[in-house]
Amino acid sequence: MKTIIHKSETRGHANYGWLDTHYTFSFAGYYNPERVHFGALRVLNDDWIDGGQGFDRHPHDNMEIITIPLEGELEHKDSMGHTFHIRKNDVQVMSAGTGIFHSEYNKLPHTPLELLQIWVFPDKKNVVPRYDQKTFDPQARKNQWQRIVSPNEEGVMHVNQNTWFSRISLDAGQRAEYSLNDKSNGIYLFVIDGKVNVDGTVLDKRDGIGIWDIASTFVSAEISADLLVMEVPMGY
């Protein structure tokens, strides 16, 4: 088993007033040659967006972009003609492919928006751009893994990569095993909230750990915890 630990306070940070963001991997003005990506996981941004503010229209291409709101409401508009709102317990997936423009705004003037924006390298380039979103029942992840992203499973968000995202809400004292879908992959576990022990490593809120060369791993909650596991190919 191999691991790499990223404590929350070691992440890159930028505060633009309307946007307060932390970067697990190199992004925008933050560059760390030792933290460019974890396998196919290229971006893990932890964003806080002030009420009524957001990202103006901007381009993307050849990237799988997954957005997970934690609090508040995000308005998405794109060059495919979509206008959608995504909220807590929703997951949004956008395959940028040959190219897409979009904007992202917190349309609630007095309520901050918290979200995770995640980029994954695709397994094929220049696909036709695609957008999808889905609401997931939070009770279905109570002390069990809830699949939210997959390359091929029904009822979850699809991406163009051999990657699986799963989320779990563990009560204090509860323990869960995560078994890899593809043993050549690695996993990146991100603690959204709480405190956990991952095979002997204690992680706090917003800490992350990358693990590879394993078939499975165990996580136990020292206090109630909300976790996101991103299983990705390592050959990137």
Helix content: under 10%
Distance between the termini: 19 Å
CATH topology of the largest domain, by name, is Jelly Rolls
Major sheet details: 9 strands, mixed
Oligomer: single chain
Q: Which regions contain 5 or more consecutive residues with pLDDT less than 50? A: none
Going by CATH, the architecture of the largest domain would be Sandwich
Structural class: mainly beta
Radius of gyration: 17 Å
CATH superfamily of the largest domain: Jelly Rolls
Average residue-wise pLDDT: 96
- What's the order of the H and E elements? EEEEEEEEEEEEEEEEEEEE
Q: Could you tell me the strand content as a percent range?
A: over 45%
Overall form? globular
Separate helix tally: 0
How many domains, as an integer? 2
**Can you identify the CATH class of the largest domain?**
Mainly Beta
Annotation, overall tally of beta strands: 20
Walk me through what this model shows:
The model has no long low-confidence stretch (mean pLDDT 96). Strands 1, 13, 14, 15, 16, 17, 18, 19 and 20 form a nine-stranded mixed β-sheet that branches. The chain has a seven-stranded antiparallel β-sheet with strand order 2-3-4-11-6-9-12, with no helix packed on it. Strands 5-10-7-8 form a four-stranded antiparallel β-sheet, with no helix packed on it. The chain is mainly β and 236 residues long. The protein folds into two domains: 11-135, Sandwich (Jelly Rolls); 138-233, Jelly Rolls (Sandwich), CATH 2.60.120. The chain is built from no helices and 20 strands. Helices cover 0% and strands 57% of the residues. It has strands spanning 2-6, 12-15, 19-23, 41-49, 54-60, 64-71, 73-78, 83-87, 90-95, 100-106, 113-120, 130-135, 146-150, 157-158, 164-170, 175-179, 185-198, 201-203, 208-212, 216-233.
